[in-house]
Design brief:
Helix 1 packs antiparallel against helix 2 and helix 1 runs antiparallel to helix 5. The longest helix is centred in the middle third of the chain and has 40 residues. The protein is an all-alpha fold and about 180 residues long.
Length: about 180
């Protein structure tokens, strides 16, 4: 049975559009709302490291499954578009909808190697600081954490997350206009 929504767009493309839209919103929310609220003189470096670590682990449970599901949905939508398209059909970019959906899937997946190569070193440093703070607090000691290092790393992570948001946003626009 065809619903009103799937009468115009295949369900796999809807999943790709919604997934990349959610990922875009999540990345920009972290970068431009959460991180600026945390970084500043109101929170100590040890609390900032622990709070960042909690935010990271909550985001991990959402981002990876949503990313992989979006890529799979976009590739399925590209296949369906390729099978059902006429040769004269092009998008506003002058390419076929199938190719535009493949580019959207590649752009979405490109976040994985970017994260592994560029973002993980910053995440590893901040996670190590957070683990050190937790260990020191369990032993009843006062942890020493460099304000400057933690603030700089959290701000860097925010900028890197904003770039990932740009990649997700590009995929969202490409899948929406295909």
């Amino acid at each position: 049975m065809v619903s009103f929504l799937t009468a115009f767009v295949r369900s796999s493309r809807i999943v790709g559009i919604v997934g990349t839209g959610l990922l875009t919103g999540q990345a920009f929310t972290l970068s431009y709302t959460v991180i600026p609220a945390l970084v500043g003189p109101t929170i100590t470096a040890d609390r900032l490291a622990l709070t960042w670590d909690k935010i990271l682990h909550r985001a991990d449970t959402f981002v990876v499954p949503c990313l992989l599901g979006s890529v799979a949905a976009l590739l399925e939508a590209a296949y369906q578009a390729h099978v059902h398209e006429t040769p004269a059909v092009t998008t506003f970019l002058g390419i076929t909808p199938a190719r535009q959906l493949v580019i959207a899937a590649i752009t979405t997946f490109a976040v994985m190697p970017y994260t592994a190569i560029v973002v993980f070193p910053v995440m590893d440093r901040l996670s190590a600081i957070a683990r050190n703070v937790e260990e020191k607090e369990m032993l009843g000691e006062t942890p020493y954490v460099s304000e400057e290092v933690v603030q700089k790393d959290v701000q860097t992570w925010g900028k890197q997350t904003a770039f990932r948001g740009i990649l997700f946003g590009t995929a969202f626009v490409l899948s929406l206009t295909a």
